[in-house]
Task: inverse folding
C-alpha cells in the first residue's frame, strides 16, 4: 500500500516537473499482480518482468503482492479490484473457483490469469506458458549432445504446464536421437533446490549426461558434476556458462502488451491469451547458444534452425501433451 | 533386487544420506535440548528459516562463511530468547507461542530478504562451503573415504555437535541441571537451581543449533536463499526427537534413517518411475518414519516436566 502512495507521489511529481497535466498521468492504466510465489520464481518472474517493462515505458502503474497464500488469494484480488485496478494479472491454478467468482463481482475490472481452464465471460481472460515449441528445439539439442543417450529430467509437480514442456522436450530429443532414454522424477515441491539437486545427482550417477532443469538446483548439480543442462523459462547460461547449453525462454511481453492495449481501447474480452506465448507471436524462443555456439555441431544447429523455421511458418506443429511423463530407462 | 543392492552399496547414496541428514541432525539436536529442559519449541521451522536467511545474507554482504554460521546462530538465539521469554517466566502456552515464533521468524526472514533485495529476479548466489575433497585425511580413508570426501565442514560440525550435546547433557553439571529442570523443576529449585534461567539458556542454545541447521541449506547444500526452502524440515525434527526418545545418539540415528529413506526414494523413483506413482515414493520416508516412530516411542521416557510451566513456590 505504501508503495502505491509513493508511486502516486512520484507520478505526480514527475508530471508536475515535466509540465505534463495530472489528468494525462491519471489516464495510465492501473495494473496489479497477485502472485502465489515470490517474484524470483521462474514462472512469475516472466510476468513480473513484462509488467515492470510496461511500467518503465510509462504505459501503466504497476503494483503487486507476492507470496500470497492460496487462502488469501481471493481477498487480495478483491482488494485490488476495489482499489480501482483496471487490470489484475495473476495465476488462478490453485484458486480457479474463487478467482472466477471475484471476476464476476467486478465486471468493470479486466482479469488476466494463468489458468489451465478456458476463459470466462465477460472479463476473465486466461494465459499459460505455452513454450512447448522452444522446448522441442532444446530437446533436439539435448538429443544431439548426449553421449550416454541418457537424459535426466527433474520436475516439481507433474501439472499440465510442466508436463507439456517435458513431453515436447522428449519428443525433440527422440527426433534427433531415437535411442535416447529418459529418467523422470518429481520432488513434490516448487521450492526445494537442495532436494532437486540431490535428485539430479542421483540421475547423473546413473549415467545421465544432459539434465533438463525444470527446477532451481538441477543446473547446480550439473555444473558440479560437469554434465550439460538445458534451461527452462529463463536463460541461466550467464550463471552456468560451461554447462547450460540452451534454454527455452518464455516471454510474457506479447501477452501483457496485448492485454494492456485491449484494456486501454475498451476491447478487452474473455479470451485465451495462451496463443501469445507461441513462437510466432514472440512469446517463446530458443535462447542464443552463447558459449555453446561453437560446441554444438553444425549439422545439429542446421536441423534445429530448419525446425524453428517450420514451426514459425506453420508447417510443423509441436504436439501439446499434458499427461504425466514417465521414465523410459 | 540387484538394482536395489547396487544402490545400497554406492558411495553416492551414503554421501547423499549425510547431506540430507545434516540439517535434520542439527534441528533435532536443537529441539532435543529445548525439550530436555521442559520447553517444546515449535518455533523450529521459523528459526531454521531465519538461520537460512541470516546466514546467507551475512555471506552475501561480504562476511566469510563461518561468520555467516555464527550470525545465523546468534539470530537463532534471539528467536529462542523470544520463545523462552514468553513460555518460561510468563508460562504461556508453548504450542501457541511456538507457532507464533515460526510465523514471525518466517515472515521476518522473507520481509528482510525482500527489503535488502527488492528487485531480484534470479536469486543471487554466494560461494558455499566446499566438500573437503579426496586429498583430506578423512577423504583418503578406505571404503568410507569417498563418502566423507563429498561432505562439507558443516556436516562434520553437525556430527561433532551430536557428541558434544550428548557429553554435555549426560556428563556435565550443566547437562544435569538442564535434564533436572525438564524432569522435576521443583526439585531443581529446591537444590537452589535457577529453573527459569536454565530453561531460557537451554532454549536459546537449542535454537542456535536449529538456525545453523537452516544455514546449512543456504551455505552448504545450496548457494542461494529461497522462500519456503525449509519445506517442513523443522516439523520432521520435532518427530525425530520423539523417535530418539530424547537422546542425542538416537537423534543422529533417526536423522540418518530418514535421510536414507529419502535418498532411496529418489533413486527408486528413477529406476521404475513408470510402475508406481511418484507420490508413493515421496511419501515413503514419512510413512516409514511414522512406523519407526510408533515402534520406538512405545518405550520412550519423555521429560516429565515437558510443557509444564514452572512457577516458583507454587504446588
Result:
Amino acid at each position: 500500500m505504501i508503495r502505491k502512495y509513493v508511486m502516486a507521489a512520484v507520478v505526480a511529481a514527475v508530471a508536475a516537473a515535466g509540465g505534463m497535466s495530472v489528468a494525462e498521468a491519471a489516464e495510465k492504466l492501473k495494473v496489479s499482480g497477485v502472485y502465489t510465489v515470490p517474484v524470483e520464481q521462474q514462472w512469475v518472474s516472466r510476468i513480473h518482468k513484462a509488467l515492470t517493462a510496461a511500467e518503465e515505458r510509462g504505459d501503466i502503474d504497476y503494483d503487486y503482492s507476492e507470496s500470497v497464500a492460496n487462502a488469501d488469494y481471493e481477498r487480495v484480488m478483491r482488494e485490488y479490484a476495489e482499489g480501482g485496478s483496471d487490470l489484475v494479472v495473476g495465476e488462478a491454478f490453485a484458486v480457479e473457483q474463487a478467482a472466477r467468482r471475484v471476476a464476476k463481482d467486478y465486471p468493470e475490472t479486466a482479469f488476466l490469469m494463468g489458468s489451465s481452464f478456458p476463459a470466462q465471460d465477460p472479463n476473465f481472460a486466461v494465459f499459460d506458458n505455452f513454450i512447448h515449441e522452444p522446448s522441442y528445439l532444446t530437446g533436439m539439442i539435448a538429443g544431439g549432445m548426449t553421449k550416454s543417450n541418457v537424459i535426466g529430467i527433474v520436475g516439481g509437480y507433474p501439472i499440465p504446464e510442466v508436463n507439456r514442456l517435458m513431453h515436447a522436450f522428449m519428443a525433440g530429443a527422440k527426433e534427433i536421437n531415437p535411442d535416447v532414454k529418459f529418467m523422470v522424477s518429481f520432488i513434490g515441491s516448487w521450492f526445494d533446490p537442495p532436494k532437486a539437486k540431490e535428485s539430479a545427482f542421483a540421475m547423473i550417477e546413473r549415467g545421465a549426461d544432459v539434465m533438463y532443469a525444470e527446477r532451481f538446483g538441477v543446473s547446480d548439480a550439473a555444473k558440479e558434476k560437469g554434465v550439460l543442462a538445458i534451461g527452462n523459462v529463463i536463460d541461466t547460461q550467464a550463471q552456468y556458462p560451461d554447462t547450460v547449453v540452451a534454454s527455452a525462454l518464455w516471454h510474457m511481453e506479447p501477452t501483457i502488451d496485448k492485454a494492456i492495449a485491449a484494456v486501454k481501447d475498451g476491447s478487452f474480452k474473455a479470451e485465451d491469451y495462451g496463443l501469445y506465448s507461441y513462437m510466432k507471436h514472440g512469446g517463446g524462443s530458443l535462447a542464443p547458444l552463447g558459449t555453446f555456439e561453437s560446441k554444438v555441431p553444425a549439422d545439429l544447429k542446421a536441423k534445429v534452425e530448419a525446425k524453428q523455421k517450420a514451426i514459425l511458418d506453420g508447417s510443423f506443429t509441436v504436439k501439446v501433451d499434458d499427461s504425466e511423463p514417465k521414465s523410459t530407462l | 533386487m540387484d538394482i536395489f543392492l547396487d544402490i545400497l552399496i554406492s558411495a553416492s547414496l551414503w554421501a547423499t544420506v549425510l547431506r540430507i541428514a545434516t540439517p535434520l541432525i542439527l534441528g533435532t539436536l536443537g529441539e532435543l535440548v529445548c525439550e530436555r529442559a521442559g520447553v517444546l519449541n515449535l518455533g523450529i521451522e521459523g528459526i531454521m528459516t531465519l538461520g537460512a536467511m541470516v546466514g546467507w545474507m551475512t555471506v552475501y554482504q561480504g562476511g566469510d562463511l563461518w561468520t555467516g554460521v555464527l550470525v545465523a546462530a546468534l539470530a537463532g538465539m534471539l528467536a529462542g530468547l523470544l520463545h523462552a521469554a514468553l513460555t518460561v517466566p510468563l508460562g504461556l502456552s508453548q504450542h501457541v507461542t511456538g507457532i507464533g515464533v515460526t510465523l514471525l521468524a518466517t515472515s521476518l526472514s522473507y520481509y528482510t530478504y525482500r527489503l535488502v533485495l527488492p528487485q531480484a529476479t534470479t536469486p543471487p548466489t554466494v560461494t558455499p562451503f566446499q566438500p573437503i575433497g579426496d586429498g583430506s585425511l578423512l577423504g583418503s580413508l578406505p571404503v568410507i573415504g569417498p563418502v566423507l570426501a563429498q561432505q562439507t565442514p558443516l556436516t562434520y560440525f553437525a556430527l561433532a555437535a551430536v557428541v558434544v550435546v550428548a557429553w554435555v547433557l549426560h556428563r556435565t553439571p550443566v547437562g544435569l541441571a538442564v535434564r533436572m529442570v525438564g524432569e522435576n523443576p521443583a526439585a531443581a529449585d529446591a537444590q537452589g537451581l535457577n529453573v527459569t534461567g536454565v530453561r531460557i539458556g537451554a532454549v536459546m542454545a537449542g535454537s542456535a543449533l536449529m538456525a545453523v541447521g537452516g544455514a546449512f541449506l543456504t551455505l552448504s547444500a545450496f548457494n542461494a536463499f529461497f522462500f519456503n526452502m525449509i519445506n517442513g524440515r523443522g516439523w520432521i525434527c520435532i518427530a525425530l526427537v520423539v523417535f530418539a526418545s530424547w537422546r542425542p545418539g538416537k537423534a543422529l540415528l533417526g536423522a540418518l534413517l530418514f535421510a536414507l529413506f529419502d535418498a532411496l526414494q529418489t533413486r527408486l523413483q528413477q529406476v521404475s518411475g513408470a510402475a508406481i506413482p511418484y507420490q508413493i515414493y515421496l511419501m515413503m520416508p514419512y510413512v516409514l518414519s511414522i512406523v519407526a516412530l510408533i515402534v520406538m516411542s512405545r518405550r520412550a521416557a519423555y521429560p516429565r516436566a515437558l510443557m509444564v510451566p514452572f512457577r516458583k513456590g507454587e504446588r
User: Anything to note?
Assistant: The longest strand of chain A covers residues 244-250. Chain A touches chain B through 42 residues (CB under 8 Å).
